[in-house]
Amino acid sequence: MLNVFLLTYFTKKLNLVIIEKDNSITNKYGDYLFSIFKEIKIYDCQKKFLSELDSNNFDILLFDNDIYDIESTFLFVKDVHVINPLIKVIIFSKYVDYDILMKCFKYNITGFMCCNSNEQDLKDFLKVSVKKLLMNNSNKFNENKNKFDVIDCLKFLKDEQPNIKLVNHFKGIAIIRAAEILDFNDEIIKIKIDNTQLKTIKINDHVVISSKHLGVEILTITKSFDYEKNEIDLMYNNLIDSYVHHRKKPRVDPKKDSNVIIEINNKLIKVDIINISIDHVLCISKELNPELKIHSNAKIAINCHIHNKIANNPNYIIRTNAFVKEMFYTIDGEKILLKFKLDEQDHQILDKYISFRIKEIIRELKNKTI
Q: Could you give the CA distance from residue 136 to residue 15 in angstroms, rounded to a whole number?
């Protein structure tokens, strides 16, 4: 139910535009679309739509690809994104084949509706569109007149769906356990938490509230615990944080004193490793490093104290080139996210190390929670 609730809450603040031939879209989905969108405008040709696109604040476009009064579907979508890069496009087509689907990925098309699609498919694509708009254009929802309040979600969860999932990470390992919302106010959410999970969380850790009834996840920070009652207080931001994060590749905290030496402009910078995956390493430095700039390239040497059985070398160092993907400043120091690509040998060694380290952390986690 809340998926529909959340979707409607957002779409009531959005402007939809439809380009169709012979009411091909509105005949089938018109009643539903007019009930959930703030405003809908309909065109029957590409030319007029493009001429008015820059002067209108459209958020989502539904396009019948039988219309091609100017040019083919994908060239048209490319032109649309040049004028409005944030607009999300859902294509309606009578035909479907591999080449069309591949072009949808290439041209950043959010959804593809074919002759066998139904209203639920459209709802699913609209949810994806809203999530992308939240991530890329959250100010649209965060203006005072348009603000989306997490309290709306919490009220619904507490009253109708109090059973949720709490997600935290212990040294890079995701811990997911059932929990229950007990109460909340404008700043704090009080949660009944699994005792095992409670042992893995510290003050100021990030914890995510997740529910199958939520269209988004709520990012919180731990404030306090009650170990006798198995309760936790979580701080949250009233405005939705648009926290949609799914790790595709496992990352782990390495052993103590693991580090990366970064070589840039003939200078060596040694930084500590926070966590590492097969193609990223997150580091921290207590000192500012003016030589390092975001989106710059550098040579790196990764020392994770890789076990002798993995690399047949107790002092194995992984050397490669890296791209400075992100840099941000925290109270603990300057954090640096490096992206890299390894040759086959180093890839196999690091992959084995991550698997070995995950097993170590799981054993540590069992000892901690039993």
A: 16
| Residue 297 binned pLDDT confidence (cut-offs 50, 70, 90) | very high
How is residue 117 written in tokens? Answer: 């699609």
Query: Whole-angstrom Cα distance, residue 294 to residue 132?
Result: 24
Tokens 């009233």 sit at which residue?
238
Q: Determine the 3-state secondary structure of 242 from DSSP.
A: coil
**Model pLDDT for residues 213-253, shown as the tens digit of each residue:** 655 578 888 999 999 999 999 998 765 443 434 445 778 88
Confidence at residue 149, expressed as pLDDT on a 0 to 100 scale: 57
d(CA 339, CA 180): 38
Q: Which are the contacts of 192, defined by CB distance < 8 A and separation ≥ 6?
A: 179, 180, 182, 229, 230, 231
**Rounded-to-integer distance, Cα 87 and Cα 243, Å:** 20
Contact assessment for residue 231 and residue 192, using Cβ atoms and an 8 Å cutoff: yes
List, in sequence order, every residue forming a beta bridge with 263; answer none if it has no partner. 268, 299
Asked whether 335 and 289 are in contact (CB, 8 A), the reply is: no
- What number of other Cβ atoms are within 10 A of residue 50's Cβ? 17
226, β-bridge pairs? 231
